[in-house]
Specification:
The chain is about 15% helix and about 50% strand. The chain is an alpha+beta fold. Pfam families: Spo0M.
């Protein structure tokens, strides 16, 4: 084995490469993703300690009055035990994993990607990145349809660092901000914010922030003191889908 081949492989030149091929790139939270990981051997034999796959997104962090993006790991999977890849050898490893129910949707500027890496001893770890299009599952879609039918339009969707009181498994939450452009709540609300806390693909808790429009001097004072916002939680399941609009509307009316 050439001395220079060892040196080149240690910095990634002529070393093994990895490529993940997914059966589909559009998926909803809770659904299964299948595919294969292809490993192509380089110019020399290498010991692969593990193949790992991570599911990632980015979220906004505020610190010292500054906002910046930080990568957040949604999940991590170890795919293999240690093995050896010979020069120019090609291996294919079938993979399957279920997208966690709390995976953010790729709406607005939110991106979700799968990163696959080889853990190679004494060398640069080869990596591969594949972006996913994460769409609402049936339950989320019914909530979005209900809110839209009430005359709300989505203005913004962002992943932000979660306050400790709202933090669950992940360090961030995805917030959906709606504004009323028609219907009964136009002129009554400034905006409606929703955060989903899935318990499973068929059951979730929704935190709503109902921001009332200021009316008169009292309303202006309340708005200045941020007393015009009400946070309310409601649990919905797939059984609520046929009457989802009525259920959501009843909650909003109580606080608008």
């Amino acid at each position: 084995m050439s001395f220079f081949n060892k040196i080149f492989a240690s910095v990634g030149i002529g070393a093994a490469k990895v490529d993940t091929k997914l059966e589909r790139d559009t998926v909803a939270p809770g659904e299964e993703i299948r595919g294969v990981v292809e490993i192509q051997g380089g110019n020399l034999e290498q010991q692969i300690d593990a193949i790992y796959l991570t599911l990632n997104t980015s979220y906004i962090v505020e610190k010292d009055d500054k906002r910046f993006h930080q990568t957040g790991q949604i999940d991590r999977f170890r795919l293999t035990e240690p093995f050896t890849i010979r020069p120019n050898e090609r291996k294919q490893i079938p993979i399957s994993f279920r997208l966690p129910s709390d995976t953010p949707l790729t709406i607005g500027r939110t991106k979700v990607w799968v990163a696959t890496g080889l853990d190679v001893k004494n060398a640069v770890d080869p990596t591969d990145k594949d972006y996913l299009r994460v769409v609402p599952n049936q339950l989320m879609e019914s909530v979005f349809n209900a809110v839209s039918d009430m005359g709300f339009r989505l203005r913004e969707a962002e992943c932000e660092q979660a306050p400790y009181r709202l933090r669950r498994r992940l360090p961030f939450i995805q917030e959906f901000e709606f504004v009323p452009i028609s219907g009964a709540f136009r002129g009554r609300l400034d905006e409606l914010e929703l955060v989903f806390f899935p318990n499973s693909s068929s059951d979730m808790e929704i935190m709503m922030q109902v921001d009332r429009r200021a009316r008169g001097l009292t309303g202006l004072l309340a708005e200045a003191l941020e007393m015009d916002e009400t946070n309310v939680r409601v649990t919905v399941s797939t059984a609520d889908i046929p009457a989802m609009r009525q259920k959501i509307e009843n909650v909003i009316r109580q606080f608008s």
